[in-house]
Amino acid sequence: MSVNILDEAVEVWFGPQHVSAHGWATKLTIVGDFIVECDPNAGYFHRSAEKCLEFRDFRQGALIMERLCMLEAFLAEYPYVKAVEKIAALEVPERAKVMRTIMMEASRIHSLQFWWGQFAAELGLFAMLLWPWVDREYFLDSFEELTGSRHAVSYNTPGGVKYDFTEKSVKMLLRALDRIEERIPTFRDMILKSPTFKLRTRNVGTFTAEQGLKWGLSGPNIKACGIPMDLRKDDPDPDLAYNMCDWEVPITHSEKHPGGSDAYDRMVQRFKEIETSISIIRQLLPQVPEGPIVDPKARTKTNRLPAGEAYGRVEGTRGITTLWLKTTDKAQTPYRAKIRGPCFSSYYSLKHLVPGSTFADFIVIFGSLDPYPGWWDR
Amino acid sequence: MIGGGILLQIDFIAWLRGIPDWLYEVIRWVYGILYALFTWVWGLFVWIWAVVMDSFWFLFKAILFPGLIFVVLGIIFAVWFTRKTWGRVQARRGPYHMGKYGGLQLFADAIKLVAKETIIPDNAKRWMYRVLPSLLLIAVLIPFAFIPWDNNWFIADLSVSLVLTFAFLTVVPVVSVLAGWTSGSKYTLIGGFRAANNQFAAEIPLIISSVGPAMLAGSLSVMGISQAQANFWYIFLLPVNFVTFMVSATVIVGLVPFDAPVADSEILFGWRTEFTGIYFTMTYFAEFAKQMLFCALMVAMFFGGSYGLPFIPPVLNFIIKFLVMLFFFVIVTSSFFRLRQDQVAHFCWRWLLPLSLLNVVGAMLAIVYIPGLAELLQLGGG
Amino acid sequence: MGSFRTLGDIFRILRHVLRQVFTRPFTYFYPYEDRYYPDRTRGRHIHIRKNCIACAQCVRVCPTVAIRIDKQDRRYEKDAALYFDYTRCIFCGLCVQACKNNALFHTKVVDLSEGNREDLLYGPDKMETLDREPLKWRGRTFR
What we know:
heterotrimer; A: alpha+beta; Cytochrome-c3 Hydrogenase, chain B; three-stranded antiparallel sheet; 15 helices; globular; C: alpha+beta; Alpha-Beta Plaits; two-stranded antiparallel ribbon; 4 helices
């Protein structure tokens, strides 16, 4: 070993052509088996969504937003729709509020199931790749029954929602919920109680709550540190129905790292998130009021919008997702839309989080923060 | 002088008259050579045939069954079986389009892989790149000669075949390190180091676990161990040894949960990343051949080889037990997460080694100090 | 003891995996079996020319400009021919929502794959009917 340890450092590109890099390139400086420096480089997935939004109508813009992150399609459309509603001063009927909430929570469950499968496969358990995805099929079938499309649901629209609940769609959603409740004990056995999982994820990717807040993390990554930072309770949206049911923000108090979290705690946290979402949906489904599903003036008011700026946000699966919209007077398309995705901060927090861990732990840390390039690269 | 007769040095007319005789002599000379050649070749052929006829059974066993062709077909079957079982574990079917139940899928894959272009990276050492996969396959296929499929169907029964098997299997991680190093990429280098680390971690528990049955049977040849289990399978006597042997075998072969050398999501296939085409096929099949070899060894050493149900031919006994072991292997390797390399080494040295040692020592003490046990189990000898 | 609990966990995991091996797989034997498509499925469109009034709202609202209209091509009094570009269509449903005359609907046909790009540009003759050439594959006929 030489005096300056960086003399022996080797630079490895955990690059864009890598199975688990999800389209990001990270330059890792490795000494032996330990990562000394981590330099994230994003941008391989850029699709200029913000610019595309400037060429699309106010009713078409939600389509672009949902394609940024198809896994949480209902959640992804919402910030845009909310911002347009604020500028156009639309009133969302009660039925639409409750339906939106239900479908957004279902979307959250669906996204977490996808992440389970992906994370488990990255850690080597190929059985668990497809088991959550089987249960995800039930959710996708219920989405298709409701809206007509499995992933690219164009469900939220300024002023309400587009498709009404039918008896069959409610039944299919309930069946999906039953199915995943049945399977959660199996997943707990396979993941949380698996000795190899504990070996692999304990004490890996630890950060304290203060560090997390400094890096801008939100969503399950922060809730796993024990901080109840949840937009659904902190800033309750009058256009959603989270106040109509009785639920607690799911947080995890880590035993080994009080005031912080490691990868194991983040996995525990996501189990709790799914259970919370299931209970919210079950409470809201019987309470759906009758009425119209969209503001009757929505189509005329969203043809041309007055000048204004608005800010729509939602607690997405990975954190707080926001969209800032600016319109000029009598505009048919937005003047500027700025999207802030939660994975932006997750990815760049790797710069501080990763150095000091081994090369094999990089994928564990990366996966446990639930990265998705659609939200950063947009 | 001009005019009159023409003076030549030879008698032209006589020469012309003698041409047919000359031609005949030439043809006879050529014929003689050809005949000599033909006789020589025919003699060679006759000699080879005599040699083949003398050792007909040996050649049959070495090439057809249970030799080369059988092992290669067995590998193809093992890959198909593994893929189908992986599919079932993941709630899907495995390959099913080619042939009934997807049987011909493997042949299609093999043909496709062989026909692919072999791209050799610039940084790789070209001749090592070409030679190493073949070395690997040879080193893995040779120990198949020692496996006792039956009392009559075996290729070679050396008195130290168990030790020889492990000696051949030691070549494998060396080849892995070399392959990782000469492929000229950082990921392969890491994979190669991890493969060497795997071997370092698990070789000793493997050998100690195999000492147990060798001790009970009193012989170091796999055939002898298998034959000594005529009355009692060793799995009932040495269950912990079986478990440690199986786990060490998993580490040596490099399957999940110990497949850090070939970690799919971290280092993209480890030391095998840069191989393409026919070389990839050889490394791919070598993996499954190793798995098959260990399954067969486990059946021979712990499950009684070809002794079992009396009404089916012994070879079929072995094959059925072998299939059950393969199935179990696939199930166990699909159920756990992958361990980090240092955790693999830690696990092997901390848990496998003491367990295997304790079981062997315990078995030794039991045999020596419990009277009558040795005669009851008819141990020793052979 | 910790190690026995770990062994118990390991056996439980193995039991789950073994149970999964012996249950029926979740996949369909496509194309021999297919899944259930609900009525609202946003598949390919069908254009009913009798009801069309050539208002071109569908053309206006399409986010990817996948619809082309030819108002000179008339079969009834006031209709038009629609050309759908299925290489651009994102199946969002805005055109069906925009048509107020019940002339454009989604169907349940979702397998639109073709051999070359020109086959995916549906002209008015293909748009009006759901019939298409059957696909022969491995001795069976599909579609």
